[in-house]
Structures are given as structure tokens and as C-alpha cells.
Specification:
The protein contains 10 helices and no strands. It is mainly alpha-helical and 299 residues long.
Length: 299
């Protein structure tokens, strides 16, 4: 399946990325205040959204992996997720809760997001059982770090001509994004250099901890005074319809590109583990073969 569909999807994704680039650089209107430098938004923002999605997948897979160690624990976690999803779906429609939502955030959007999160949680557990959960978590973290790196690189490039500085240390979104990147880099370092039998579980716990920083990054511009503008979708910000169309087009292209990278990396990691397992089994059989050979020699 991989050899048949991967090249086709890769070609289609390449065309989509090229078309999205053309729309971003030559078709989207120029910003009245920032000029053409604003066009970096078509790479900065989609990279951030893609990184957040991948880190969330890493979080879901890590929780599923930890819960799957014990059937009773898994049942409890499934019930907790279901109840939280139900609360997240119903609560925004209560006036007291709706009043706490940031300006421009609709209760229906929050409710839909809650259902999507629960659906994704159970979908991941069904499609990637057992060891595959750990492979998915590792893959999502690796690719997520790449896109988060793009965010940290393009941010200062955009900030320099607009804000007059490369980096604003007091900006909560900048700082929390850097912390998020450091957490997941630490996750990858742990996975790469630790040989402990508990490495997978320790990494999963670190991933769960790291995921707590994602909401802080996303909602920081709603609840804290920062130099970042308000969100372009909800939250009091605004964007021209054509700009929004091109932004979503580029995000779609980035998602397709990220999917292909994750697909390839997942298959590679899966094959690596199969090879390691085969080599381990072979090394266990070698002493038995040697004993049989020595026995035959004695006879």
C-alpha cells in the first residue's frame, strides 16, 4: 500500500504546495500596514497550527500508551475522556461559562472541538493498538519539532521589520513557544539516548507534561498582554477574506506535507523495531545452536 499510494500523494502534495506558494506570494493582497513582509504569515501560522496538531496527537498517543498497560486503567481513562468530552460539549452553552470565553470564540466552536478531541482519542486507540501507539507518539513529536522550529525561525524574521527587534523576551507567546520546543526536544533526546526499559513510559509522561504548554501558547494572546496581534480566526482579530482563504490553503498543504513525512517516518521506525526484534531473537538462538554443535562434536 505504501509503495503504491505514497508517490501519488507526494506528487499531489508537491503541486498543492506549489499552488499555495503562488497564491501566498503573488495572489493574496498586500497588507496595508506591513506591506509584503506580512506574507510570511502563510508559513509562520500554518507551521504553528500543524505543530500544535502533531503535539496533540503525541499527547493522545502517549495517554493511550500509558493507559493500555492495564485493562482496568484503560477503561477508567476511557470513561474520564468521555465524561470530559460531554462536559466540554454542554458547558459552553451555559451563560455563566459562555461569559468566560474570549471575545469572538463561539460556544458551538468549543462544543464541536470537544467532540472532535474525544473522537480523535478513540480513533487513535483503535487504529494504533499496542506498540504502534508508541511509534505514533515518537513520529508525531519528531515532525512536530520540525514545524515548531519553523515557527521559531520565521517569527523573528517577521518581527524584525514589524516590531524593530528580533525577539521580545517579555512576550508570553514567544517564551511559551520556546519552552514548548525545548520540552519536546528533551523528549526526543530521552528517546534517543536512554536505554532503560522504562524509557517509553518516561517519555510518555514527559509528553503529557509537555502538552500542557500547548494551550498556554495558543491562548496566551487572549489572556495576557503581548506584542502578538489578536487571532486571525476568532478572538477579536480580523483578516481579509482572500487572505484567510490563502492562509487555509497553505495550512492544508502543510497538513498534507506533514502527513507524508509522518507516514514515511512511522514506517521507517516500525521496520527498525522489527529488525531490532529479529536481531534480538537471533542472538538468543545463537547460544542454543552453539551448544547443539558442541554436543554433536563430543559424540
Amino acid at each position: 500500500m505504501t509503495s503504491k499510494w505514497f508517490p501519488i500523494l507526494a506528487v499531489l502534495t508537491g503541486f498543492l504546495l506549489g499552488y499555495a506558494f503562488y497564491e501566498a506570494m503573488f495572489v493574496a493582497p498586500t497588507d496595508a500596514l506591513q506591506g509584503d513582509v506580512y506574507r510570511i504569515i502563510y508559513y509562520h501560522v500554518p507551521s504553528a497550527w500543524t505543530a500544535f496538531l502533531l503535539f496533540f496527537i503525541n499527547f493522545v498517543a502517549s495517554v493511550q500508551f500509558l493507559a493500555s498497560a492495564n485493562p482496568s486503567t484503560k477503561r477508567v481513562v476511557n470513561w474520564v475522556v468521555s465524561v470530559l468530552g460531554l462536559i466540554g460539549f454542554v458547558a459552553p452553552f451555559f451563560p455563566q461559562v459562555g461569559a468566560l470565553l474570549p471575545t469572538g470564540m463561539y460556544p458551538s466552536s468549543v462544543a464541536t472541538t470537544a467532540l472532535l478531541i474525544v473522537g480523535l482519542y478513540f480513533l487513535v486507540g483503535k487504529v494504533f493498538p499496542g506498540e504502534k501507539l508508541d511509534i505514533l507518539a515518537l513520529t508525531a513529536a519528531e515532525v512536530g519539532v520540525v514545524f515548531c522550529t519553523v515557527v521559531l525561525v520565521t517569527g523573528p524574521i517577521w518581527a524584525r521589520p514589524v516590531w524593530g527587534i528580533w525577539w521580545a523576551p517579555g512576550d508570553i507567546r514567544l517564551t511559551s513557544t520556546l519552552v514548548l520546543w525545548l520540552i519536546y526536544v528533551s523528549y526526543l533526546v530521552l528517546r534517543r539516548f536512554s536505554d532503560s526499559a522504562q524509557t517509553q513510559k518516561l517519555a510518555a509522561v514527559l509528553a503529557v507534561f509537555g502538552a500542557l504548554d500547548v494551550p498556554l501558547v495558543y491562548f496566551s494572546i487572549w489572556f495576557f498582554r503581548t506584542q502578538h496581534p489578536q487571532p486571525v480566526i476568532g478572538g477579536g482579530g480580523s483578516i481579509a477574506p482572500k487572505m484567510l482563504q490563502v492562509l487555509l490553503l497553505n495550512w492544508t498543504a502543510f497538513l498534507c506535507f506533514a502527513f507524508l513525512i509522518c507516514w514515511a517516518r512511522y514506517q521507517l521506525e516500525k521496520m527498525r523495531r522489527e529488525v531490532d526484534e529479529a536481531e534480538a531473537m537471533e542472538s538468543l538462538r545463537e547460544p542454543d545452536v552453539a551448544k547443539v554443535s558442541m554436543g554433536r562434536g563430543v559424540k
